[in-house]
Design brief:
The protein has three helices and four strands, in the order ββααβαβ. By secondary structure, the chain is an alpha+beta fold. A two-stranded antiparallel sheet has the order 1-2. Helix 3 (about 55-65) links the parallel strand 3 (about 45) and strand 4 (about 70-75). The longest helix has 11 residues, at about 55-65. It is extended and about 55 Å long.
Length: about 90
């Protein structure tokens, strides 16, 4: 992570390699493509979704709506089953 401040920034996590730099140490584009679904999902299932303001599930679902998540959102109350969904979430 990188912390951003009005006066600048600070890197608080870094990957370091001891020894000579090799091509294998870099991220290849085909490997990065495997993460596309993680960062750009078509759907998100929110387990513990709630109608009660102030609860975590309510806040998570509300934030996804507020920030205009473009995919399909699937709210799950704790008593629901994944098998009960009409389509599989990603």
């Amino acid at each position: 992570p990188v912390f951003l401040y009005p006066s600048g920034n600070m890197v608080v996590d870094a990957r370091m390699f001891i020894g000579e730099f090799t091509e294998e140490a870099t991220v290849k584009s085909d490997k990065a493509q495997n993460l596309h679904g993680l960062f750009y999902p078509d759907s998100i299932a929110v387990f513990g979704a709630s109608n009660s303001e102030g609860k975590l599930g309510y806040n998570v679902f509300r934030n996804l709506l507020f920030h205009q998540f473009k995919g399909r959102l699937i709210p799950f109350k704790c008593s629901m089953s994944v098998a009960a969904t009409p389509r599989d979430p990603e």
